[in-house]
Design a protein that fits this description.
Layout: E1 4-6, E2 17-20, E3 37-38, E4 49-55, E5 58-64, E6 75-80, E7 94-100, E8 103-110, E9 122-126, E10 129-134, E11 143-147, E12 156-161, E13 166-173, E14 176-185, E15 194-198, E16 207-215, E17 220-227, E18 234-240, E19 248-253, E20 261-265, E21 272-276, E22 282-284
């Protein structure tokens, strides 16, 4: 059961303008185990570099502060504690920035290998102090990142794992995390899905266009779906019950009307286009 605790590459196919495509491998903007968190964490608008580590005296976030010009010459050490973390256990080793309107961003931090069983696996830091925690389905993430799914101007969280074979989103309200618009299994082989983050429905929130594959003893399926970042409603554009089909996805303006359309490739059929119909849905042409 989830616990929530609050404390104080694909190329365009030659039709229409190319808008978005997924990156190969890890999703663009994600952080993996031991990777620095790059971006403003002090609220001054400059890009900082934050590294998470474990020390004999506790958890540490080392911030190389962004400079106005040239290389940074200032490093700030922020020690913090994780409530309930047993002494001697490793601290979080991966994280992402969570933007906030008119304030310095929060950080969401977690463990690649998972935390001790007695505590949640995802913590939110504000000013480098824990303000909330949450137990997502993905408790051993390979990558963590942030997008504004609900369009409120504040960063939300997504996680994906090649260990527990899952992709999950979380919405941040205040300091607390809650279930987000999308959660779906991945291939048992561990391959991460191709996911495009973009506002394709026109509701100011960031939607997900997902090229997914499920291959397990119980379920075999692959397909392409559009998930509304605000409502969580899903439109499946294509699916293959055998799970053998591999799809490619990109977002283009195929008819030149200024609205995003979705282009799909895969299988014996030539590339095809789904046009946006003006109501946040897409129809094959």
């Amino acid at each position: 059961m989830k616990k929530s605790i609050v404390l104080a590459t694909v190329a365009a196919f030659g039709v229409g303008a190319f808008l978005y495509a997924p990156a190969a491998g890890a999703v663009t903007g994600s952080n993996g185990r031991g990777q620095p968190i790059v971006g403003d964490v002090t609220g001054d608008g400059r890009s900082d570099t934050t590294t998470l580590s474990t020390t004999p005296t506790g958890c540490l976030a080392t911030v190389v502060v962004g400079a106005k010009r040239g290389p940074s010459v200032k490093t700030v050490l922020h020690y913090y504690s994780i409530p309930g973390l047993p002494a001697g256990r490793p601290c979080p080793d991966m994280g992402t920035r969570l933007t906030r309107k008119r304030h310095a961003p929060d950080l969401a931090v977690t463990w690649f290998s998972g935390p001790p069983a007695s505590i949640n696996s995802l913590f939110v830091l504000r000013n480098f102090h824990v303000v909330s925690s949450y137990q997502p389905d993905v408790d051993q993430p390979s990558y963590i990142g942030s997008q504004d799914f609900d369009g409120d101007g504040n960063g939300d969280v997504w996680l994906t794992s090649d260990q527990t074979q899952h992709f999950e989103t979380l919405t941040k309200v205040g300091t607390a995390l809650a279930e987000g618009p999308a959660s779906f299994p991945l291939s048992i082989s561990g391959a991460n899905p191709n996911v495009i983050f973009a506002d394709v429905t026109g509701n100011r929130g960031i939607d997900l266009i997902a090229n997914y594959k499920v291959y397990s003893p119980d379920t075999r399926e692959s397909g392409v779906s559009v998930i509304n970042g605000r409502s969580g409603s899903t439109q499946v554009l294509e699916s293959d019950a055998s799970g053998t089909m591999t799809y490619g996805i990109s977002v283009v303006d195929a008819n030149g009307d200024g609205s995003p359309d979705i282009k799909v490739s895969g299988g014996a059929n030539p590339p095809r286009v789904y046009l946006k119909n003006g109501h946040g849905h897409f129809a094959l042409v």
